[in-house]
Each structure stands twice: as structure tokens, then as C-alpha cells.
Amino acid sequence: MFAATRVLRQAAAHAERVPSIKFIGRRTIPASVDHTPKPHPASPTHSLPANWGSSPSFSAYRQHAQQHGPLRKTIRPEVDGIGGSPGAALGSVNPPQGLYFDRNDLPARFRRQPLTEAEIEAIESGCGFA
């Protein structure tokens, strides 16, 4: 049994790998790519948010981004050290108006609907809904 497994593994290791996707033609790199932001085709407003262009680069955007509190405060060990300034000096950790950090903070219409007893029974029994 072990010898057969070893033979099969060796054969598989030496077999030529054939990709399952066949590309037509050679790969070409476009001369120029338009990276200007565009609204999503399914956007209800067909426009970008009002403050979208306020950051000229990702690093500038990151200076004002928030994730569990402001990110713009850099730790300078030689000056501040870790914990060198109080948490209150770092700014508010509350999201701006209209933004939410947690799914549970969203309005009720965006939350998951609880399962009914019939749905739970159908899932547990393996049957589909009637």
C-alpha cells in the first residue's frame, strides 16, 4: 500500500503541469492606464462622494483616516515614547456623522433578520422550504 502511494506521488511530481485556462495571444502591457476615479456603474447617484478628491495621495488620505481611533498620530520614541501622551490628546474615537465602525451600530434595516422557527427546523432537518 505504501509503495503504491509513493509511486503515485512520484508520478504526479514528475507530470507536466497543464494550466486549465487557455489565454489567447501574448500578454501586452498598455502604454497608458487611466487611474482617475470613476463612480461604480451601479451607483444610485452616478457620482463620487463629495470629499473624494480631497486627498491627493493614499498617504495623505491615511493621515486623516480612522480605524479604532485616529491614525495620524505617529509615535516618536525619542520624543514621546510609547504612552508618552494621554489618550485624550489623540482625538475622538467616535466616528463622524453618518459613518459606522461596527455593523451593530447600523440602523435596524441593515441588520440581519432573525431566523424563524420554521427556517431553523428546515435547516436542521436538511429539507428545503415548502
Outline of this structure?
The chain is built from three helices and no strands. With 130 residues, it is mainly α.
Describe the fold and architecture.
The chain is built from three helices and no strands. It is mainly alpha-helical and 130 residues long. The model has no long low-confidence stretch (mean pLDDT 76).
Major sheet: none
End-to-end distance: 49 Å
Q: Radius of gyration, Cα only, in angstroms?
A: 27 Å
Q: Tell me, briefly, the overall form.
A: extended
Strand content: under 5%
Judged by helices, strands and strand pairing, the structural class is: mainly alpha
Number of helices: 3
Q: Report the uncertain regions.
A: none
Total strand segments: 0
Task: Give the ordered list of helices and strands.
Answer: HHH
Write the layout of secondary structure elements.
Elements: H1 2-14, H2 58-64, H3 117-125
Quickly list its features.
single chain; 22% helix; 3 helices; extended; 130 residues; mainly alpha
